[in-house]
């Protein structure tokens, strides 16, 4: 298990049983960013690409909601 990982959930939406939702809680943004750069997260992205529907990826913080642009910025930044 990754450092900073708190909890995770996988569920189906009641009004859309074809949708599979995967949520994770992280203790801090630096630990989340470390996970986003990991091979495990790469595997998740590759799995999402196999979806017959366009997948939705959202990162929720206390103040904002981020999408794939945030993931790209984290994965391809030097810091």
Automatic annotation (TrEMBL):
It comes from the Bacteria. This is Antibiotic biosynthesis monooxygenase. InterPro entries: Dimeric_a/b-barrel (IPR011008).
